[in-house]
Amino acid sequence: MKAQKYFVALLFAAALSFNLFQGCTESPFEGGIAAEPKQITGQVDLVDTLNDEKGVYVWLSGLDLSTYTDSTGAFTLEMPKNVSRDFSGVFTLYFYVANYRFNRATVVVREGKFLYGAGDITPDGRVKEVIKLSKILDIKTIVEPTQVQSSYRGPINLQTTLQAVRDTVSVVFPKSVGGLLGGMFFRHLGTGQIYIDIVDVGANTRDEVLIGREPRSRRQIFELNGANYRDLFLPVGEYIVIPFFLIEQDDLPQELFNSFGEKADDLTPNFLKIPFRRDEARFQIVP
User: Fold this and answer.
1) Are residues 95 and 143 in the same domain?
2) Are 219 and 159 contacting, i.e. CB atoms less than 8 angstroms apart?
3) What is the pTM of this model?
4) Tens of pLDDT, residues 208-255
């Protein structure tokens, strides 16, 4: 009788072990349990840069998921925990910098999880190819003079020069009056505070220009502490000065642009969430 009970116990233990191993995607002696498909990873290459791939915007349509690449161009996109198991579909993963030609990949979601091995995703959850982005527009901005005292009351000139790298590029200057820039941002390097100079608050203009291989420049004049009757009061410090304009690309969904925040296409701080690669203009106010 004891021998029979011992034999039954052995059978039960063997069955339990078999079921446990069946629940694993691979043997624990061969590397552990496979990860649940809740994230995808990949690599982005800005083809004109060396060792600086940080800040490329990665956005997934349908779920409005987003992240940015690190300095090596790597990214990881996480599926939110609250996505319903009923959620399935085929979606586009976009890779975006405003003055580069955007790129994309296909992603399949099934029952609230990424479907590895489908679309452009490998069986181990990576985008198959290195995503390459090519620059379409060179952007250079200068400020003259580059340094003034806080008591300075003269004009300060901001000039932005644009040049297409290959084909023509459509650039929009909202609120532009008389062929000038419509506004500019000042980011204080010490505090991170954003100051905005709107040339004509009430202007509803929208000047669209095709930029080719011949450089085209636009400028704007500003003055400190309301000297030109605009509400621009800048404390002492060093600033990055950013001109306001938009770059249009065919087939880029408006939803991607909306993902940067409300009125990102207007003179609001959300505009600065849009990634650009440009020569930065620095300007300093000293006591």
Assistant:
1) no
2) yes
3) 0.85
4) 999 999 999 999 999 998 877 788 999 999 999 999 999 999 999 999
- Lowest-confidence region among 26-30, 38-42, 44-48, 272-276: 26-30
Q: Is 25 exposed, middle or buried (0-12, 13-18, 19+ CB in 10 A)?
A: exposed
* Largest Cα span, the chain: 106
How far apart CA 58 and CA 103 sit, in angstroms, is 10
User: Which H or E element spans position 18?
Assistant: helix 2-22
State mean pLDDT over 50-72.
93
Q: What CA–CA distance (Å, rounded) separates 256 from 276?
A: 15
Q: 125 and 141 share a domain?
A: no
Q: How many residues are present in the chain? A: 287
> C-alpha angle with apex 155: 149 to 160, nearest 5 degrees?
105
Q: In degrees, to the nearest 5, what angle opens at C-alpha 229 toward C-alphas 261 and 218?
A: 60
Domain match, 150 and 276 both? yes
The larger pLDDT score, comparing residue 15 to residue 129, is at 129
- Parent domain of 10: 1-31
183 and 221 in contact (C-beta within 8 Å)? no
CB-side exposure of 32: number of CA atoms within 13 Å? 3
Does residue 174 have a pLDDT over 60? yes
Q: Are 249 and 102 in contact (CB under 8 A)?
A: yes
Domain count across the chain? 3
